[in-house]
Structures are given as structure tokens and as C-alpha cells.
Design a protein that fits this description.
Bound molecules: glutamine
CATH architecture of the largest domain: 3-Layer(aba) Sandwich
Shape: globular
Distance between the termini: 74 Å
Strand order of the largest sheet: 10-12-11-13-14-19-18-17-15-16
Strand content: 25-35%
Helix content: 25-40%
CATH class of the largest domain: Alpha Beta
Oligomer: single chain
Largest sheet: 10 strands, mixed
Radius of gyration: 21 Å
Number of domains: 2
CATH superfamily of the largest domain: Class I glutamine amidotransferase (GATase) domain
CATH topology of the largest domain: Rossmann fold
Length: 367
């Protein structure tokens, strides 16, 4: 079935539809990962976005049970050059086309994804719509140009009610702004007793859960659309509870501390983004998926320390609090997909919880 991608600048790409045949709008972004399409399309941070994959052959190892980052993918569309219809992998249970149909996500193939990516790199991300080839493209362009980009998606992807993943170790409350399951997996693997709570849970409600640590998850959209988080974060820090922010969680941590965020031209999405640790000089290869960033000039005057920067463009990649047990990264230590280089950050969080616990004990004993 012939389908098209219409961009707000008037460009029309002609391709072949696969997956769901619904028309769908979104912010068109690109991801440069060579593998990991199942994790990418099920990452809730892509809610409201149409993702184009620059690697030309997608779907060749099929779809499996292990690689979902959420049960209900929230991505608005997937654009590829070639979608493989005959996958081969021992864990594969079906094709990309079948998955997209089942989850009601429109796909478009036969697109020159490198041309599309170059266009986005030149102009910045653009709004676009996947539609039928017979659609009135001029009317779609007008529609795209007239409506502002919707960025407030956290409420739709966050859990509606708290849930518990019981275990024997430290209790971690994960504030779910659209958390990837990889984050929960990393905590569970370290025996953490995880409680996942909705995005608007208050500090008082969190403290009632007696947490040893708080993890602010990744999530979609503009961090400024989640003002509920800011008071909660400052209150948690007053209690000296260790805090770890990932991606959207990192941006919210920065906003709560008085820094600012801004939108990048086309963001960072891929599995090989080099990040420099400013203390050791060490470079790690990281998985990234973000369109916003912390504005570095706004860190002065806050209690935050810049700990990591992006090698490619110098943007802020990591922050630490100067006195409180709190740190955050713009990239994904849980990877999924991507390299595991940044995985030791979970160890750092575990150590922070142990140290704070020990110090707390001393205070109690000395009292
Ligand atoms: N993966 C994320 O948490 C993304 C954070 C935010 N939505 C951004 O695009 O910058």
C-alpha cells in the first residue's frame, strides 16, 4: 500500500506502508543505532515522535519476548529504508510488521532515510505525518504548521497506580515518567526492592515508603511540562536520601536545582555517543535518546557540579550535587539498546545508598 510522509516544510517522501494503516502525526527524529529497533520502538521516551532509523535494513532478527522496554509502545511511527519480512533468529517470535500491526503503530518503508536524516540535521527536527498516498498534502502541511508541537506526554506513559517488585535488598522508589524496563531490570539484578510510583507522587507519599534511594526515570517530551516533579525533588534532597536521575530524570533534577533546560536542534539518539567523565578524563560510549539538554551557563549559582560532557558537541551529560547524595546523567546506563559502558553508574547509586545508610547508623548510634 502506497503511503507518504509529509513534513511541515512541505517535503513529501513516498514509500510503502507496513504495520498499522492509521494516519499519525509526530515530531520526526532519527536514531543512528545499527541494532535495537525493538527496544527503540518500545522506549516510552519516544511518545509523540516518529522515528526514522538510519541503518538501512531493519527487522532482520525479528521480534522477541526479551527486548521490550514497555508493554505498550508509545512511538507514533517508524520509518525505515528496508523492513525485513523474513527474519532469522532463534528467539524471534514474529516480524516487525506483525508487531507494528498488533500495537497500532504506522510504519513506512522504502524511504531514503539518509536524505531524511540530512534534512533533519540541517533544519532541526520537523513535525510530520504518515498518511495515505491519496491525502491532500497541502492541507496536511497547513495542519502541521498551524498546530504547536505537543510535548506533554508524561501523564499518558506513566503508571496510573504504584506497583511493587519485591526483593531482599535496598528499597528504591522509581518515579515513573515513562520508565524503560531496563532500569527496573538493573535495580532488580542488584536485589533492590523496587516500588514504581506515578509521575505526580509527592515527596510525602514517597517518604512513607521508607526508601533507601530514589530513581527519577527517563520519559518523553519537554521537562518543563512536568512541574510536579520539582518540589518533590527538592524535598527528597532535604531528607538526604540518595537520588539518581536518568535522562528526563536528569533534566528534572537540574530544573529543581535552579538550572535551565533548552531544546537541541536535532538531539542525540543512537548507541555510540561518546561521553567524557571530567574528573577522570575517561570516555564511555553511551546509548542516548534525548531532544532537550541542560543549559550549561545556568549551572553557575546552583549547587550542581558538571561531571560529564558530550564529546561530539560539548553538551551537558552528567551532574552531581555539591553536598547532597545526588547525581544524574543525560544518557542511558541501562543501555537497551546500546553499549554497557555506563552500567557501573548503578553500582555508584548502590554504593551511595550503602554509605548513606552507614552514616545514618553512626548518627543514630552517636545520638
Ligand atoms: N529519554 C529521555 O528521558 C528523554 C528526555 C526528554 N524527553 C528529551 O527528549 O530530552
Amino acid at each position: 500500500m502506497k503511503r507518504i510522509l509529509v513534513l511541515e516544510d512541505g517535503t513529501v517522501f513516498h514509500g510503502e506502508g507496513f504495520g498499522s494503516a492509521i494516519d499519525q502525526e509526530g515530531e520526526v527524529v532519527f536514531n543512528t543505532g545499527m541494532t535495537g529497533y525493538q527496544e527503540i520502538l518500545s522506549d516510552p521516551s519516544y511518545c509523540g515522535q516518529i522515528v526514522t532509523l538510519t541503518y538501512p535494513l531493519i527487522g532482520n532478527y525479528g521480534v522477541n519476548r526479551q527486548d521490550f522496554e514497555s508493554i505498550s509502545p508509545a512511538v507514533h511511527g517508524l520509518i525505515v529504508n528496508e523492513a525485513c519480512s523474513l527474519p532469522s533468529h532463534y528467539q524471534s517470535l514474529g516480524t516487525l510488521d506483525e508487531l507494528l500491526k498488533a500495537k497500532n503503530i504506522p510504519g513506512l518503508m522504502g524511504i531514503d532515510t539518509r536524505m531524511l536524516t540530512r534534512l533533519i540535521r540541517k533544519h532541526g527536527t520537523l513535525k510530520g505525518k504518515i498518511a495515505s498516498a491519496e491525502a491532500d498534502t497541502a492541507a496536511i502541511v497547513e495542519e502541521l504548521k498551524s498546530a504547536p508541537l505537543k510535548t506533554n506526554h508524561v501523564q499518558s506513559v506513566s503508571t496510573k497506580t504504584p506497583y511493587h517488585l519485591p526483593n531482599t535488598g535496598r528499597r528504591v522508589v522509581v518515579v515513573d515518567y515513562g520508565a524503560k524496563s531496563g532500569i527496573l531490570r538493573e535495580l532488580s539484578q542488584r536485589s533492590c526492592d523496587v516500588v514504581v510510583v506515578p509521575y505526580n507522587t509527592t515527596a510525602e507519599e514517597i517518604l512513607l515508603l521508607n526508601p533507601d534511594g530514589i530513581l527519577l526515570s527517563n520519559g518523553p517530551g519537554d521537562p518543563k511540562d512536568v512541574p510536579e516533579a520539582l518540589h518533590m525533588i527538592t524535598s527528597i534532597l532535604e531528607e538526604e536520601i540518595p537520588l539518581f536521575g536518568i535522562c528526563l530524570g536528569h533534566q528534572l533534577f537540574a530544573l529543581a536545582m535552579g538550572a535551565n533546560t533548552e531544546k537541541l536542534k536535532f538531539g542525540h539518539r543512537g548507541s555510540n555517543h561518546p561521553v567524557k567523565d571530567l574528573q577522570t578524563g575517561k570516555i564511555t560510549m553511551t546509548a542516548q535518546n534525548h531532544g532537550y539538554t541542560v543549559s550549561p551557563e545556568t549551572l553557575a549559582g546552583t549547587e550542581l557540579r558538571l561531571t560529564h560532557t558530550a564529546v561530539n558537541d560539548g553538551t551537558v551529560e552528567g551532574l552531581g550535587h555539591k553536598v547532597k547524595p545526588a547525581f544524574s546523567v543525560q544518557y542511558h546506563p541501562e543501555a537497551s539498546p546500546g553499549p554497557m559502558d555506563a552500567n557501573p553508574l548503578f553500582e555508584k547509586f548502590m554504593n551511595m545508598m550503602e554509605t548513606t545508610k552507614e552514616e545514618g547508623k553512626e548518627i543514630c548510634l552517636n545520638a
